[in-house]
Amino acid sequence: MRDLGDSGTERVQAVCIDQFCEDHIITYIDLMKIDIQGHEYSALEGAERLIRSGRVGIIFLELNWAKNANGSCAAAESIRFLEQAGYRFSRPGQRLNWGRAGDWLESVSDVVAKRVRP
Length: 118
Prior knowledge:
The protein is α+β, with helices and mostly antiparallel strands and 118 residues long. The chain has helices at 17-23, 40-46, 48-52, 74-84; strands at 29-34, 56-62, 87-90, 110-115. The longest helix has 11 residues, at 74-84.
């Protein structure tokens, strides 16, 4: 557990998604929604084994394009990570048009990612 030291906050135990799924014998996730205010890349890292092995079908992800104190951008890191793992992207909506990552993603705050290769 990490104590952030803020008054009025509640301490909770955190566990990475890979470990949680292993502990509970979850072998596949159909849909994963991640919306944690700029920390989405950290969550993806915590699910790396599942994602890279193709055991997460679709990911609905909030994109926070702001750069953090060290100059990195969680949204860019998230997209790069997912693309390397074989995911393609679409704007959310009734009709999903899957495509590669590109500059078009910088204009969206939410994206749907789908694994397209085995």
